Amino acid sequence: MGFFHRLNRSADLVTGMADRRGVDFSARIMRNPDAGTESFRALMMRCSACSDQDGCAELQANCDHLDAAPDYCCNKGFFDKV
Questions:
Q1: pLDDT at 1
Q2: Are 52 and 4 spatial neighbours (Cβ–Cβ below 8 Å)?
Q3: What's the pLDDT at 3?
Q4: 8 A C-beta contact, residue 66 and residue 17
Q5: What angle do CA 51, 66, 18 make, to 5 degrees?
Q6: Closest of 36, 10, 34 to residue 25, by C-alpha
Q7: Which of 44, 52, 42, 45 lies closest to 73, judged by CA?
Q8: What is the distance between the alpha carbons of residues 3 and 29, in angstroms, rounded to a whole number?
Q9: Would you list the domain boundaries of the chain?
Q10: What is the mean pLDDT of residues 43-72?
Q11: DSSP states of 53-72 as a string?
Q12: pLDDT class for 49, splitting at 50, 70, 90?
């Protein structure tokens, strides 16, 4: 898988996890564009290092809502405190 393909997939997975955890990135970015986009970029970069993106994609395909991020999620700390 190429670098840009992995980043694109990571953006989709981060957005999907945010949706399932009730995080509105659009509102965060509108409130503070610099911090909001930097936060999203950091989440996306951590996600791109994940060794179980396939598992995350499958989880998201089967769940519309999550009470917590999965234990393997590189962004669990962020998603579990929002």
A1: 67
A2: no
A3: 86
A4: yes
A5: 70
A6: 36
A7: 52
A8: 25
A9: 3-81
A10: 96
A11: HHHHHHHHHH-S--SS--TT
A12: very high
